[in-house]
Amino acid sequence: MAGCAGNPDGRLVNKEVNGKVVQILTSMCDPLRYPKADIVDLYSHHWEIEHRFREMKQHLLNNELTLRSKKPERVHQELWGIVLAYNLLRFMMAQMAYSLKGVEPYEMGFKQSAICAATCVYSRALRRGNCPE
Fold first, then answer.
1. Is the CB of residue 29 less than 8 Å from the CB of residue 50?
2. Among 52, 74, 79, 98, which is 20 to 30 Å from 21 by CA?
3. Mind giving me the DSSP string for the chain?
4. Greatest pairwise CA separation for the chain in angstroms
5. Residue 117 contacts residue 92 (beta carbons within 8 Å)
6. Pair 97, 108: CB distance under 8 Å
7. Which is it for strands 11-17 and 20-26: parallel, antiparallel or unpaired?
8. Residue 96 has what pLDDT?
9. Residue ranges of the domains in the chain?
10. What is the pTM of this model?
């Protein structure tokens, strides 16, 4: 599969998922080195990661296109804060789900859980009299 300039090689992988045929276009052309099952598995993991990034951007950053920080070290700190908040919220969701019978963490809505957590933090701050403005 030698490609020439302007015509990159590609491979179309078909896989049936839940009764629907899913097509994945990849540049990993060698079927012996990159089996179809591995490509489909990697794609599903990739999709989960993209979904988690979307949750962070939409629900923790309120769809803001830019971060508040301007200096590189502060941007780094802000990004780590977002990742930390996301993982803490996911951990809390898992704890809540496991405390209920028959509920799995993936069945809980991220947006609703984020709103609930923010409300709890805000109401505690109000009771203590040190609510942020």
1. no
2. 52
3. ---BTTB---EEEEEEETTEEEEEEES---TTTS-HHHHHHHHHHHHHHHHHHHHIIIIISTT-SS-S--SHHHHHHHHHHHHHHHHHHHHHHHHHHHHSTT--GGGS-HHHHHHHHHHHHHHHHHHHT----
4. 69
5. yes
6. yes
7. antiparallel
8. 87
9. 10-65, 66-133
10. 0.63
**What tens digit of pLDDT does each residue of 32-83 get?**
999 988 988 888 888 888 888 888 888 888 777 777 888 999 989 988 998 9
- 54: tokens are 């979307």
Task: Give per-residue pLDDT as tens, 2-15.
Answer: 544 556 788 899 88
Instruction: State the CB neighbour count (10 A cutoff) for residue 132.
Output: 6
**Quick one: which of 52, 24, 28, 20 has its CA closest to 40?**
24
